[in-house]
Design brief:
With about 270 residues, this protein is α/β, with parallel strands linked by helices. Helix content is about 35%, strand content about 20%. A 9-stranded mixed sheet has the order 3-2-1-4-5-6-7-8-9, sandwiched between helices. The chain is globular.
């Protein structure tokens, strides 16, 4: 009997279905892994923005984690919205027990500019969570939030990666999606530099891109890929998902997590 790789997402719920836990689980299903979840916060969210969020108690987060890890087990973990300093520290302590790849998406603000992380949580994220990360995946706004390093063109992305790497993750993926020109991302471990490029697509419906990429990366890591190969495959999946992004509501619609099925393709599996 085939048992797919198991991936755990620790993140917030997006009531609109485009990002957060919902995007993570859709991505994992599309890539042939078994997705599990620890919900850290509930958001009231739609295509126009985040109207409110409520973080869960620390004990609720801890118990969800224990229930999954102690019985089912995990082969990779992805973190997203953690909301508060207390939750960041709790999750970091729990992850320190595991010997599996951890992808940290350091979610600070939503696609619409709404804050999703308390200001006092940044130091805890830097000091406790980033050191347990296999790969951390900041966009350029998050790089600046974490390090104070502002990136205005592609030539500055390695310097930004070095600044994030100083906090202790094994790899840093600096996402260049906010720059002009082609969509270029840099994966760096302090020695090896890997660039990933794709054409910039003329589609404004990109809600959930960060969650989707991090979840795809975790899915391929769970299947045994090393970070450079996992990122190559994750980038290819995300590019097609962005291409298929569709309008919902009156604002920014989501990427298409299920494009494989609409193409008549089958899930690729985690490996």
């Amino acid at each position: 009997m085939h048992i797919p790789p198991r991936v755990l997402t620790i993140a917030g719920s997006d009531s609109g279905g485009g990002a957060g836990i919902q995007a993570d689980l859709k991505t994992m299903l599309a890539l042939g892994v078994h997705g599990m979840s620890v919900v850290t916060a509930a958001t009231a969210q739609n295509s126009l923005g985040v109207q409110g969020f409520w973080e869960l108690p620390v004990e609720a987060v801890r118990q969800q984690f224990r229930s999954v890890v102690d019985d089912i087990g995990v082969q990779a973990v992805k973190t997203g919205m953690l909301a508060s300093a207390e939750l960041v520290e709790t999750v970091a302590d729990l992850l320190a027990e595991l010997d599996v790849p951890v992808v940290v998406d350091p979610v600070g603000v939503s696609k619409h500019g709404d804050s999703l992380l308390a200001a006092d949580a940044l130091d805890v994220l830097r000091q406790k969570l980033l050191p347990v990360a296999t790969v951390v995946t900041p966009n350029l706004h998050e790089v600046e939030q974490l390090t104070g390093t502002r990136v205005t063109d592609e030539s500055e992305m390695r310097r930004a990666a070095e600044a994030v790497l100083a906090f202790g993750p094994r790899w840093v993926l600096v996402k260049g999606g906010h720059l002009s020109g082609e969509a270029a991302d840099l994966l760096f471990d302090g020695d090896r530099e890997h660039w990933y490029r794709s054409p910039r697509l003329d589609n404004t419906h990109t809600h959930g891109t960060g969650c989707t990429l991090a979840s795809a990366l975790a899915s391929f890591l769970a299947g045994g890929d090393e970070p450079p190969r996992a990122m190559e495959r994750a980038k290819a999946y995300l590019t097609r998902a962005i291409e298929g992004g569709f309008p919902l509501g009156g604002g920014v619609g989501p990427v298409d997590h299920g494009w494989r099925w609409r193409d008549g393709d089958r899930p690729a599996g985690g490996g």
